[in-house]
Amino acid sequence: MERMQQVVSRARAAFNSGRSRSLEFRIQQLKALERMVQEKEKDILAALHADLHKGGPNAYSHEILGVLAELAQTMEKLPSWAAPQPVKKNLMTMRDEAYIAYEPLGVVLVIGAWNYPFVLVMQPLIGAIAAGNAVVVKPSEVSENTAQLVADLLPQYLDRELYPVVTGGVPETTELLTQRFDHILYTGNSAVGKIVMAAAAKHLTPVTLELGGKSPCYIDKDCDLAVACRRITWGKYMNCGQTCIAPDYILCEPSIQGKVVENIKATLQEFYGEDVKSSPDYERIVNKRHFQRVLGLLEGQKIAHGGEADEASCFIAPTILTDVSPESKVMEEEIFGPVLPIVTVKSVEEAIEFINRREKPLALYVFSNNKQLIKRVISETSSGGVTGNDVIMHFFLSTLPFGGVGHSGMGAYHGRHSFETFSHRRSCLIKDLKMESTNKIRYPPVSQKKV
Amino acid sequence: NPYAGLVSHLRASWLSGKTRPMEYRVTQLEALGRFLDEKKQEILEATDLDMGKPSFEAYFSEILLCKNELNVTLNNLCHWMKDEHVDKNLVMQLDSAFIRKDPYGVVLIIAPWNYPFQLVLVPLIGAIAAGNCAIIKPSEISKNSERLLAETLSCYLDNDCFAVVTGGVEESTRLLENKFDYIFFTGSPSVGRIVMTAAAKHLTPVTLELGGKNPCYVSDTCDIANVARRVAWGRFFNAGQTCIAPDYLLCTLEMQEKLLPALREAITEFFGSNPQESPDFGRIVGDKQFQRIRALLHSGRVAIGGQTDEAERYIAPTVLADVLPTDPAMQEEIFGPVLPIVVVANMDEAIDFINARPRPLALYAFSCDSKVVNQVLERTSSGGFCGNDTLMHVTMTSLPFGGIGRSGLGKYHGKFTFDTFSHHRGCLHRNMGLETLNAPRYPPYTEQKLGLLTAAFEVKRRSTCTVL
């Protein structure tokens, strides 16, 4: 366990040497990362396939495309992001230099998750490097092939002392969390999020917690159901439902429930063919434990479609549940699987109330032809982010901050927001040592006229 | 849980949506403005009773600065509340993409005793502006200020949405058991840890404005008289009880000898030959703090001041020379009118000294040579920095105010307070039509579709910029 302390001390010494601070160095490291992704594409895709049964073009578009885009954008914009920002001055500081300087925080810890094991380590890493920090990377042990790959590859391309990879499970992570970091970005569930924040509190370390929850999806009567359902099906069943921003459950009026089911069924056919199990584009549940957990949620439910499962391959068919009770198990925890419950509500008011009674979700979705209705749902609820008339997509616009609120997390990243998350904004005021006469009005002794 | 009722009452008000409209927020903010105007005398009296705060200082730091924040907020609220539209990528050109500023809900503001009004009101202004409900917990140590806030704020603000809770450690601990949607804490690092640990149980985000020892480096090339005045002003304001006060001086032996007479002269200019009689010099807030600071005087040698009067909790403006890093005055944040001078050989040694210690809330460097000021700035880390003056960087509402590492996390003042108390919600409002554009993303996955997606999503690197 001393190992953790050594790794972190080495990273801190490397940071203190100052070499990660120059823009040239940072861009050089980012370029190396870019080369790594391009040169090792096959290995990365193989690891993702081994961990999640994720097919080539699918894995590429979800895990590699985004990373390359983030790298390109970051390298291009870094000089402008890192430049000191002059600020508006007041009367007393008219002749002074006043600006905000962006500085690295120091040693950052990035803890990844298993569901998008490559991108959820890479995107934070890119931002942390861009901001000039040393970064300790801890990929999730659950996606073991990707974790091992990251541990093998990063040292081949990046500065080994500044950006070490630590592998292991709960004991190793617990030990790691006793060390002092200058920022921790954790992606995972709320229960562990609390543990991470409590550990961070001991060192007064700021945290970004990308957690989860049940992301609601409200379908209005007035909408193009075929389109809506196709988009929902895509977002729900990608990665076998193991997506933090998947539409977790549907809220709609009873009158359209049947049509919703029909449309989703038709779309599933279009996407995965007759025999889902043999589609190369349909993933598997990551392990037996989660397989059991998700399967257990089906107990006592009305299965309108799907329900088939095969433990040996951790296969669960795309499943739809209808007339689900808000009190049932499937409506208690984040599903994180290919099971889509439909809860009926009488109106949009009831939907809004339903959503507000529960913990704030990471994402919120609303489908309607009525722009006003969409605006209303957004205004009367709270969530990490929102996509109207689609799902997932707000994740792919890096100018939008990506993060949760309440139980779904705190802080945000992506694009420039990553750079800012991993930087310290230091206020700087540089005055003239002369011009003392202007200061005299503030010194004692005081006469009324000074005020 | 004695506060459960209060918290759920505020939460119900929050859920009713009444704090969301701009008009409501403006009304509450204007009421705060009236509080500052109508209760000005009472505020000055309360801080005088609590720590002998001179009325000039109280007016400047507790009323004027708050009014500035209020006016900046009222002038800009409409603009701050607006959805911030963001640049879109190719695929989303026909969509609406914006950042919505959502209130968090029910927030908790915990304030310390040294600027008992400012450190309640400036966060509160931002919390109200951002549309939240708030519980305010002023410090029990500044008891007259606490009483004034508890008794009068409720006459100005909507009691369904804003409440003041009084009490000590016990009450604060019980209060922190409740779930809040944001906690804003100003105080010591050790209590900061307790607050963040309590917040972690509910996954409540926090801003912690803490403290530490703010170093002040004085180079050999400087206008000594001006340095002495600016440093003395910053150190002795509020009898040294300021989180951003210059805590200790670093300079060469030669400079120490030149500074001492200059500091003596500045102190006399400010407070007369007997500062105890000056109406412009404050007192220590309580007996415990008085005794703590008095014990620190056994450091180096007393070059200026050193007199104390326990009955009045008076400690004279004091400068300690030849202080060693091992002396008592260098072991903790002084928070009193005592300025230790630690002798260093040169700027490099000063920088190493600073970097060997926890990162401070503020850092000061004085030199006529701007290269020296910039060197100190670039080779250190701190919450904020002021070259050739003290304290002034926090009077600018356009500069974020906050710490780093042990001196804190988060920042506020001006728009930064509004942003602190808002959840920045990424929103993408898409077109229901044009479904064909989405086709490449759907299974069955093919290389051809991937090619289309890549073309649509990728960011092509422009020619490398060699000028960095």
From TrEMBL, chain A:
Q: Where do transmembrane segments lie in this chain? A: 98-116
Q: Which Pfam family name is an example for this entry?
A: Aldedh
**A cellular component annotation (GO) from this entry:** endoplasmic reticulum membrane
Where in the numbering of this chain does the Aldehyde dehydrogenase domain appear?
3-425
Keyword Membrane part of the UniProt annotation:
yes
The family database entries (PROSITE patterns) matched by this protein are listed as:
ALDEHYDE_DEHYDR_CYS, ALDEHYDE_DEHYDR_GLU
Q: Which reaction does it catalyse?
A: decanal + NAD(+) + H2O = decanoate + NADH + 2 H(+); an aldehyde + NAD(+) + H2O = a carboxylate + NADH + 2 H(+); octadecanal + NAD(+) + H2O = octadecanoate + NADH + 2 H(+); (2E)-hexadecenal + NAD(+) + H2O = (E)-hexadec-2-enoate + NADH + 2 H(+)
Q: Which UniProt keywords apply?
A: Coiled coil, Endoplasmic reticulum, Fatty acid metabolism, Lipid metabolism, Membrane, Microsome, NAD, Oxidoreductase, Phosphoprotein, Transmembrane, Transmembrane helix
Active site (record annotation): E210, C244
Q: What is its EC number?
A: 1.2.1.3, 1.2.1.94
**How is this protein named in the record?**
Aldehyde dehydrogenase family 3 member A2
User: Source organism lineage?
Assistant: Eukaryota, Metazoa, Chordata, Craniata, Vertebrata
Automatic annotation (TrEMBL), chain B:
List residues of the Aldehyde dehydrogenase domain: 19-422
User: According to its UniProt record, which residues of this chain constitute the active site?
Assistant: E209, C243
Which lineage do the record's taxonomy fields give for this organism? Eukaryota, Metazoa, Chordata, Craniata, Vertebrata
Keyword terms of this UniProt record: NAD, Oxidoreductase
Q: Which organism is it from?
A: Grallaria varia
Q: Which GO terms describe its molecular function?
A: 3-chloroallyl aldehyde dehydrogenase activity; aldehyde dehydrogenase (NAD+) activity
GO BP terms, alphabetized: aldehyde metabolic process
Q: Which domain of life is it from?
A: Eukaryota
What is the name listed in the Swiss-Prot or TrEMBL entry for this protein?
AL3B1 dehydrogenase
**SUPFAM superfamilies documented for this protein:** ALDH-like
Q: Which GO terms describe its cellular component?
A: cytoplasm
The family this protein is said to belong to = Belongs to the aldehyde dehydrogenase family.
Task: State the encoding gene.
Answer: Aldh3b1_0
